[in-house]
């Protein structure tokens, strides 16, 4: 296990994604080094209303509660966590929000072997649904995981559907993708390879969708619905997301953790879209688990 090897991959991935998105948007990301990582953030870009691609390398003398919830035997150990996390909020409502992260966690105790595991994934949160976009995103996810076993993609797709679910709303956050955590099956090289495959697949999965939709015209109605649906995104991140909790509990930088929140959001009391509208179609056709590929 080589922390420098991990760091080199994660920082390289961050730079590749940021450089590509800068060309796509036409505006530079702000690169903000803060001691235990670098946050690359764009606000009021030509295309992205807000987005962030963050690298962090956090260490501590005691595992945060969010990290030991599924591993209570590791409570009290020192830890090291490093990875890349990103969230991108386009301005155009026909372009979906997307989230991705890849990470490695190492827990140590004197006189014992280090315990390591990987986690990550990516998912898509559309405001207006397009079948070809959903199929494309899920196909790239499937193909990225295919070399690691025929059973891996179905398991990680279901894990994503189950994880990105607002239990208090009984509603999916979006159309899923893949998600995995606590990965230490087989060798370190295999697990690191799988994690790299997911990280490397993000741009091919997401960017073609943005290129296809970026010129679609929209108005106040579409922006209003986008702001309403963004409220669900905020609710998930602040109520259910383990990554948000870990970041705050581990002494992470609050600005970098909460850059995932969209800049404009609305909530309404007991509102539902009119049947037969494109807004209603998001709920009936897309916000439910489906085998897209």
TrEMBL record:
Q: What does this protein do?
A: Involved in the heme biosynthesis. Catalyzes the aerobic oxidative decarboxylation of propionate groups of rings A and B of coproporphyrinogen-III to yield the vinyl groups in protoporphyrinogen-IX.
Active-site positions on this chain: 99
For region Important for dimerization, the annotated ranges are 233-268
Q: To which species is this protein native?
A: Denitratisoma oestradiolicum
Q: Which residues bind a divalent metal cation?
A: 89, 99, 138, 168
- Which reaction(s) are listed as its catalytic activity? coproporphyrinogen III + O2 + 2 H(+) = protoporphyrinogen IX + 2 CO2 + 2 H2O
What EC identifiers does the entry list?
1.3.3.3
Q: Which family does it belong to?
A: Belongs to the aerobic coproporphyrinogen-III oxidase family.
Q: Which GO terms describe its biological process?
A: protoporphyrinogen IX biosynthetic process
Protein name per the record? Oxygen-dependent coproporphyrinogen-III oxidase
Q: Which cofactors are required for activity? A: a divalent metal cation
Sorted alphabetically, the Gene Ontology cellular component annotations on this record are: cytoplasm
């Amino acid at each position: 296990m080589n922390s420098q090897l991990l760091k080199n991959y994660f920082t390289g991935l961050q730079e590749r994604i940021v450089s590509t998105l800068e060309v796509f948007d036409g505006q530079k990301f702000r690169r903000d080094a803060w001691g235990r990582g670098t946050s690359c953030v764009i606000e009021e870009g030509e295309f992205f209303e807000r987005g962030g691609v963050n690298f962090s390398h956090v260490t501590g003398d005691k595992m945060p509660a969010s990290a030991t919830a599924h591993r209570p035997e590791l409570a009290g150990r020192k830890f090291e966590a490093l990875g890349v996390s990103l969230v991108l909020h386009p301005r155009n409502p026909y372009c979906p929000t997307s989230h991705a992260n890849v990470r490695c966690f190492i827990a140590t105790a004197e006189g014992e072997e280090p315990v390591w595991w990987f986690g990550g994934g990516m998912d898509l949160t559309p405001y207006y649904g397009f079948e070809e976009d959903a199929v494309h995103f899920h196909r790239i996810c499937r193909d990225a995981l295919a070399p690691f076993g025929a059973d891996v993609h179905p398991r990680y797709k279901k894990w994503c559907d189950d994880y990105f679910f607002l239990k208090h709303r009984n509603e999916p956050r979006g159309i899923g993708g893949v998600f995995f955590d606590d990965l230490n099956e087989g060798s370190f090289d295999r697990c690191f390879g799988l994690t790299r495959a997911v990280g490397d697949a993000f741009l091919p999965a997401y960017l073609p969708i943005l290129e296809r939709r970026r010129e679609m015209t929209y108005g106040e109605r579409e922006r209003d619905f986008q702001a309403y649906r963004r409220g669900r995104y905020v609710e998930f991140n602040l109520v259910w997301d383990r990554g948000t909790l870990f970041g705050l509990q581990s002494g992470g930088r609050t600005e970098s953790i909460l850059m995932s929140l969209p800049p404009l959001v609305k909530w309404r009391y007991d509102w539902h879209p009119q049947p037969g509208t494109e807004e209603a179609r998001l709920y009936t056709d897309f916000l439910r688990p489906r085998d897209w590929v």
